[in-house]
Amino acid sequence: MQVGLKATGGTLFAIGAATVALLAPSAHAGAGGFSPGSARSGDPFFPREGNGGYDVQHYGVENSYSPGKRRLRGATTIDAVATQGLSRFYLDLRKHMRVSAISVDGQPASFVQRDGKLAITPAAGIPDGDAFTAVVSYDGHPRPVVDPDGSSEGWFTTDDGAFVASEPLGTTSWMPCNDRPDDKASFDFDITVPKQLRVASNGTLTGVTRTESKATFHWSQPEPMATYLATTTIGRFRFLRSSQDGIDSLVALDPGFGRRTPAPFKRTGEILGVYQKAFGPYPFGSTGAILDPGPVGFALETQTRPIYASPPSTYIHAHELAHQWFGDAVSVSRWPDIWLNEGFATWASWLWEQHLGKRSLHATFRKAYEAPLSKRFWGPPPRRLGGPKNLFDSSVYVRGAMTLEALREKIGNPAFYGLLRSWVSDHLYGNGSTAEFIALAETTSGRQLDKFFRIWLKRTGKPKRW
Ligand code: TRP
Ligand code: ZN
Which residue, 324, 346, 365, sits at the end of a domain? Predict the structure, then answer.
């Protein structure tokens, strides 16, 4: 789904077909012209991830997992709209998930699976603007994706199932998709597991269907979601339900962490209350958390229901809840804009600590600014990371958050909070870029801020005057 003005299709970034079209419009112009969609997003950090020529509206994921065999089988139904006449189009899926069949609008399609891509040739071309439905069937032994910095994400096998956390590229380890953050879509998950296990996913648990030996968990995520925020985590969970600041909450708790809701999750409502006041209404229909001992040392802001491999501090939980606005409801258009996620979520957890009376925003800023070990906060500059290996550098978090706090102190609370609320409401369920944020900051405050942002986001070294 595409909200706002970004081009999902190959038009902006694609080389190949779209470039040819620009040079020789007659080559594919007009109704009835069909050419291959792009096999690239052109993202500056992950140019080969994601595809063009269509816009996904909905994913219907039907997976079945056998923990004993570590085998995942399933079919994903992809509803999309063509943004050009398509003779062929591409999806992302890692090769350990072997595709057995693909249909497009009910007709068998021919396909080639290579280099993390499915090249799909439907029986007939798809006209520009037409809706179409692709069904991809697969079978394999999922394992994580390894990134340029050596870190891994995606599908991790656990003692009792799987821990699934996929930022930035890991979703392709377990389902076919258009893996770029600017092609958001609604999701339905129907995940079948042995009957003693449970599945924790995004959105709302709408039902459980049981047979003698199996259970199928039906989850629905109606608001658009970026692919990297999807999860189908499997384990021996207890489901703890409550209402948090008026929002339905479901915490999936691995019993190894006890029978009762861990303390930070009991404060979800209080945290959401602070954020709803500051950023506007909570953007989704449900909240909660997933706590499952995975072989990873991190937390992720999986949409509606952040995932943790170990019990978080309330500060970390506040960070992941802030991402529901900054990252999830409003997602980056391209990965080099990651400070719009991590800097904002970090600043928001400073706001939470200020609410607790622990430390004011200004004091937190000063502490970071003056910390003797602060060198690592200053480089690389948040919007000049130099490459995907620095995507989650601590400067993205801390210098990113300091950028926002310096902005608040420069333009004042009314303009600053007005800016954050407009940022969320203008880009709700869509995407945003740093350039768009700066432009909105200037119109909201009536100030010229390009130099300010250049110093904080792009200039090497510690900012001295801004
Ligand atoms: N976005 C996460 C956070 O700051 C960090 C993160 C990046 C992550 N990549 C990940 C977590 C992969 C889990 C898996 O909260
Ligand atoms: Zn984060």
Answer: 324
Does one domain contain both 298 and 419? no
Whether residues 144 and 93 fall in one domain: yes
Q: How many domains does the chain have?
A: 2
What is the extent of the structural domain holding 450? 332-458
pLDDT at 338: 98
What order of strands is seen across the sheet that includes strand 110-114? 35-36, 86-92, 117-121, 110-114
Q: Is the distance from CB of 78 to CB of 99 less than 8 angstroms?
A: no
- Report which of 136, 140, 139 is spatially closest to residue 75, judged by C-alpha positions: 136
- The total of other beta-carbon atoms located within 10 Å of residue 337's CB is 22
User: Which atom of ligand 1 is found nearest the CA of 391?
Assistant: 7
Of 324, 342, 358, which residue is a domain's last? 324
- The structure tokens listed for 236 are 């021996």
Nearest CA to ligand 1 atom 12: 167
> Does this model's pTM top 0.90?
yes
Residue 389 lies in a domain: yes
Q: What is the CA(35)–ligand 2 centre distance, in A?
A: 39
Walk along the chain (466 residues) in steps of 10 and give the mean pLDDT of each run.
40 36 41 90 98 98 98 98 98 98 98 98 98 98 92 96 98 98 98 98 98 98 98 98 98 96 97 98 98 91 98 98 99 98 98 98 95 72 96 95 98 98 98 98 98 97 92
Same domain, 318 and 341: no
Which residue's CA is the nearest one to ligand 1's atom 3? 300
Ligand 1 atom at minimum distance from 306 CA: 15
